[in-house]
Specification:
The chain has a seven-stranded mixed sheet with strand order 4-3-2-1-5-6-7. The chain has two domains: 169 residues, Alpha-Beta Barrel (Aconitase, domain 4), CATH 3.20.19.10; 31 residues, no CATH class. The protein is an alpha/beta fold. Helices cover 36% and strands 15% of the residues. Helix 8 packs across helix 9. Strand 6 and strand 7 form a beta hairpin.
Amino acid sequence: MEKFTVLTATAAPLMRPNIDTDSIIRVERMVGLSKDQLGPWALEMMRYRPDGSEDPDFVLNREPWRHAKIIVAADNFGCGSSREEAVWALAGFGIRAVIAPSFGDIFFGNCFNNGVLPIRLPEATMNAIGAEVAQPAGSTLTVDLEAQCIVTASGARHPFEIEAMRRRMLLEGMDAIALSLTHDKDIAAFQLRDRERRPWLWNAAEKSA
């Protein structure tokens, strides 16, 4: 998984509440496509008209936001079904961070497992950031995970907090399995003690393997 330390990039304002996972990736796109093929279909119901042409009024179809790596969102982003494909699609599209007042709980957790940083900020702060990035001159944000701070183009600084374990996962580019393996010595020591305490269980497991 790609590390996330400091990201300076274009941020697209998507200030609609309750953008759910079905809006992020349609269920039809989850059939027959691999994880790496979902990016072009992210947010397609907003990006495209029924005839397949781009909607010129949608922010991600306009400069400079077409190249956004950050989404500035409204309340309850990623609500709805638990599909991890929603995060896969955003990551495949190039999104590395989503900033919102609140998230769907499962979507929030899936972000950390896939190298996308979800940041919660108060609604008033989000409205101020959204208004700034809606102007081309203010569309660049710096998201500093090491310092846990967002800096806008005007120089405004907005601190945020990320739970320590999840912050470490992103800073070091580790998923949950890789994080567990950092304790491999402790795991091996436990297994040795348990083998001595319950040899019958280990013998049965080895015979059935």
